[in-house]
Every structure is written in structure tokens, then in C-alpha cells.
């Protein structure tokens, strides 16, 4: 449910389509994105046993090629549809009612004096990144937040009361409301602390350094264990407890953005 919701939001933003049903372009994209998520979560033996890279014993390389071809074909079709619609509007002397992300990228591709020129391949890659990176993580945060609300009804009631007092009951929450919803912000931060969308993430060292008594060479691949950092009792009071108030009390110290964890 949450995956479909996030896909619908991103589809509206990027190409003015809804990801509903199976017999439409946006719905097919949703299906392929789910396959991408499954491939990301699959243990790839060739990452640990180099000899397997040439054998594809799991068939993952073949699946990746198939999914990549389907995604690129669909993205190309989306771009062509937008180009045809823009040409038709131009011939009919009609103004576009509104531009989505694909329209803006086509503007960049057509702008000869632009400092940043977009190629067709770059446009396809950017839209794919929006779907692949912008759906699974957002859906995961929402699912875990709803699960914690069920487990902690008092927190749910407090968040609901704040939304009702600021937004009311006659409209949805807007982005402009967020600064006035500090408890809701704390709820999201606590969910991301206790249930990070990506428990581990890779980074590459730009230069040699020493961390915790260990020598880390330059250009080394580092795996950051965000899950362990989030539950470290040396830095968090009652680390296994779901407590959004911890971010209210120390709002100027702890944040999910910036240099501090």
C-alpha cells in the first residue's frame, strides 16, 4: 500500500501519471521498480567469490539486464510522449497547463545556452533514480511509522492531535505545514533512527586516515553500520525504546541532516 502511494506521488511529479492498475505505463513501471527492489535485496555471491562473476550461477546478471532494458525502454517512451505533446501544443498555439519533471528535463535538453546540458541518457537515468531511490526508502519509513503507531497508541494520538490543531480536518498536510509540526518531525526522525531504510551503506575513503585505532587506506570501500550506530547505548538513552520526545528535548543537537548524526 505504501509502495503504491509513494510511486503515485513520484509518478505525478515526474510524468503526470498515476501508478494504478497493470494495463498502463505507470503501473508497469511500478511493477518493474518492485523487481529492482528484489534484486537489490538479493545476496549476490559474486561479490564475495570473484570466480562466480563469469558464471552467473544465480542468474542475477541476466535478470538485471532484462530489468534495465525494460526500464530504459519505458523511460524513452515517456520522454517521446512528452515531446509529442509539447509539439502538438506548439502547433496548436496552446500553452502547457503545467510542467512535470520530464518537461523540465526536456527544457534543459533543448536549451542551447544552458550551463547544464542534459543528454537523453541523463534524463532517463535521472527519472529512474527518482523511482528506484525515492520509493523504497520512503515506503519503508511510512510502514515502520504506522507499525510503531499501532504499538504506541499514545504517540499516535499525540501526533494526530498536533496535526489536527495545525492543519485541521478538512485538508491534507502541506509541505508549508512541516515547520509548525515539530512532533511529527520528531516521529519521523525517531523512525529513521530505530528503523533506518538502509541499515548498511557503502562509502569510499578519499584519503588515508586512522579510525578507532585502525588504519584506513585511501580509496578503500567502507561499510557503515547505521543500524548499530542508531542503537548504541553509549549515545542514546534507552536506545531500543521508540521515543520521539528525545528529538524534541535536544532539537538543536540531534538531527538527521547535517554533519551531526
TrEMBL record:
The protein, known as: Cytochrome P450
Pfam families: p450
SUPFAM superfamilies hit by this protein: Cytochrome P450
Superkingdom as given in the UniProt entry: Eukaryota
Recorded family membership: Belongs to the cytochrome P450 family.
Biological source species: Quillaja saponaria
GO molecular function, one term: monooxygenase activity
Amino acid at each position: 500500500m505504501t509502495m503504491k502511494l509513494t510511486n503515485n506521488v513520484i509518478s505525478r511529479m515526474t510524468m503526470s501519471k498515476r501508478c494504478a492498475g497493470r494495463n498502463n505505463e505507470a503501473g508497469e513501471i511500478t511493477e518493474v521498480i518492485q523487481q529492482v527492489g528484489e534484486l537489490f535485496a538479493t545476496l549476490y555471491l559474486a561479490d564475495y567469490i570473484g570466480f562466480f562473476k563469469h558464471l552467473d550461477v544465480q542468474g542475477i546478471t541476466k535478470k538485471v539486464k532484462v530489468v534495465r532494458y525494460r526500464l530504459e525502454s519505458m523511460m524513452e517512451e515517456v520522454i517521446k510522449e512528452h515531446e509529442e505533446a509539447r509539439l502538438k501544443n506548439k502547433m496548436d498555439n496552446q500553452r502547457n497547463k503545467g510542467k512535470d519533471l520530464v518537461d523540465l528535463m526536456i527544457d534543459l535538453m533543448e536549451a542551447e545556452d544552458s550551463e547544464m546540458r542534459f543528454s537523453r541518457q541523463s534524463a532517463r537515468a535521472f527519472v529512474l533514480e527518482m523511482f528506484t531511490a525515492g520509493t523504497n526508502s520512503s515506503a519503508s519509513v511510512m510502514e515502520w511509522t504506522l507499525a510503531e503507531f499501532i504499538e504506541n497508541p499514545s504517540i499516535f494520538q499525540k501526533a494526530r492531535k498536533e496535526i489536527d490543531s495545525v492543519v485541521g480536518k478538512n485538508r491534507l498536510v502541506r509541505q508549508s505545514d512541516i515547520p509548525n509540526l515539530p512532533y511529527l518531525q520528531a516521529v519521523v526522525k525517531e523512525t529513521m533512527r530505530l528503523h533506518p531504510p538502509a541499515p548498511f551503506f557503502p562509502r569510499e575513503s578519499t584519503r588515508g586516515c586512522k579510525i578507532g585505532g585502525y588504519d584506513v587506506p585511501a580509496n578503500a570501500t567502507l561499510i557503515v553500520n547505521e543500524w548499530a550506530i542508531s542503537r548504541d547505548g553509549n549515545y542514546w538513552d534507552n536506545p531500543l525504546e521508540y521515543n520521539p520526545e528525545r528529538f524534541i528535548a535536544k532539537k538543536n543537537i540531534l538531527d538527521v541532516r547535517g554533519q551531526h548524526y
